[in-house]
Design a protein that fits this description.
The chain is α/β, with parallel strands linked by helices. The chain is built from six helices and 15 strands.
Length: 236
């Protein structure tokens, strides 16, 4: 049985090699020509996990990629809307969905997601890049730089580490977001594209992770890079 991590197609050899050493095969998201280059391969822009074995993917995704997902026993639902280059028509799948909550700018959430959310409290925020902006530590702990996301989560009694924006590389843009630098490989293990020791707020993040018994894994040396969230839990 293989464990898959869905990643941006631009993941580098060091990052890919370190994931392989941990026992994970990488599954690269094919880029979407509908999105601007900086985020065209970011998994959190191109698909959304409803649960571990079910996802919504943008309707124009390559058929061979969709068929491979099905081959590894992932149920695939196509989005109702196509992705577009400009905000807010590129954010339809970029939501936080874990535990008992769903967080997004719900005016623009793709209907294929909304129609498949059950038994969750829906939190509407004004940050459309919700998943990009949010690192999930567990179902009750999060890191974000966005005040609307922080306020919504705190109202639900979630533990939130609120950090200033910046100091994260996103080629083609001024800076990236904390949610796009990382992803839970499994419960208690959070992998980063980069080293928290090179991040301005790394000590705060590592202290927060320790508080929640989560181990950080650094997939590459150097500063944090936003490659879009990693998604795991796939078994083929």
């Amino acid at each position: 049985m293989k464990k898959f991590i869905i990643v941006d197609f631009r993941i580098n050899k060091e990052e890919k090699g370190n994931l392989k050493k941990l026992g994970y095969e990488t599954l690269s998201c094919p880029p979407s020509e509908s999105l601007y280059t900086a985020v065209c391969g970011h998994p959190d822009m191109l698909l959304h996990f409803l649960k571990e074995d079910t996802l919504v993917i943008h309707k124009d995704a390559p058929l061979n990629f969709i068929n491979f997902l099905k081959k590894i026993n992932i149920k695939v639902i196509l989005s109702k809307n196509s992705l577009e280059k400009s905000y807010p028509y590129n954010i339809g799948l970029n939501a936080v969905n874990i535990g008992d909550i769903f967080v997004h700018y719900t005016k623009y959430t793709d209907p294929a997601i909304i129609h498949n959310i059950y038994d969750k409290k829906i939190l509407n925020v004004k940050q459309g890049y919700t998943k990009c902006s949010t690192a999930i530590i567990n179902s009750n702990a999060f890191i974000t730089s966005d005040p609307s996301i922080k306020n919504a989560l705190v109202k639900e009694s979630k533990d939130v580490l609120f950090l200033p924006p910046g100091n994260i590389i996103l080629p083609g843009l001024n800076y990236g977001f904390i949610g796009g630098t990382c992803g839970l490989l499994e419960k208690g293990i959070l992998a980063f594209y980069g080293d928290l020791n090179c991040y301005k707020y790394g000590k705060e993040v590592m202290s927060f992770l320790e508080k929640h018994n989560v181990k950080p894994i650094f997939l590459r040396k150097g500063p944090l890079v936003d490659r879009g969230s990693m998604f795991s839990g796939l078994v083929g």
